[in-house]
Amino acid sequence: MKEQIEQWRQKWRELSPSDQRALSILGFVAGGLFIVYGLFVPAKTFFDEAHARAQESRELVHWMQSQRPVLGRITPANAGAKASGTLLQRVTGAAKQHQVAIKRFEPEGDNRIRLWIEEVRYQDLQPWLNQLIQAQLAVRTINLDALPEQGMVSARLTIEG
After folding, report:
1. Whether pLDDT at 77 is above 90
2. Could you tell me which residues come within 8 angstroms of residue 124 by beta carbon, excluding any fewer than 6 positions away?
3. Which residues, in sequence order, are CB contacts of 141 under 8 Å at separation 6+?
4. Strands 112-121 and 152-160
5. Residue 139 above 80 pLDDT?
6. 65 Rama class: left (phi>0) / alpha (psi -120 to 50) / beta
7. Gap between the Cα atoms of 23 and 82, Å rounded
8. What is the dihedral of CA 117, 122, 127, 132, to 10 degrees?
9. Phi and psi (nearest 5°) for 150?
């Protein structure tokens, strides 16, 4: 490394004073351009974009706060109705309505159940899941596996009520 530096110094000394001056000015200009376009402009662009995102977030928070009274007046359609039956009864009842055969189930406490469903048409599974969600049951996890037959899936899911 020291040898290369010494070679550069030797080449510098061999240049004429006007070439040394021109090369110094060129180096100064190149360094200035690097500082401006390599450091300052990207930093300013990042800052401006972050400022714009922060402003959009503030506007969104303001809008959400302005909508809070409106949301407070809205009551769910089934707010007064308490779901009848246990979680398992509600889930299996809805499954029968949509021709979804539950292969195996495993309760996890009073308000969570794990289900295994094999070979069901996705067209039957989707409305059943929608009905569960409308009944205010939460689908916490779901794993769907496509089967070789067109439109058929297997599912493993956890439902919480």
Report:
1. no
2. 98, 99, 100
3. 156, 157, 158
4. antiparallel
5. yes
6. alpha
7. 84
8. 30
9. -55, 125
In the chain, at which residue ranges do the beta strands (DSSP E only) sit?
102-107, 112-121, 138-146, 152-160
| φ/ψ of residue 142, rounded to 5 | -150, 135
Tell me phi and psi for residue 57, to 5 degrees. -65, -40
Q: Please name the residue that has the structure tokens 């094999």.
A: 118
Looking at this protein, which amino acid is placed at residue 82? K
Report the Cα 107 to chain-centroid distance in Å. Answer: 30
* C-alpha to C-alpha distances, 42 to 27, 50, 54, nearest whole angstrom: 21, 12, 18
- For tokens 């800052």, the residue is 47
SS3 state at 120: strand
pTM, to two decimals:
0.48
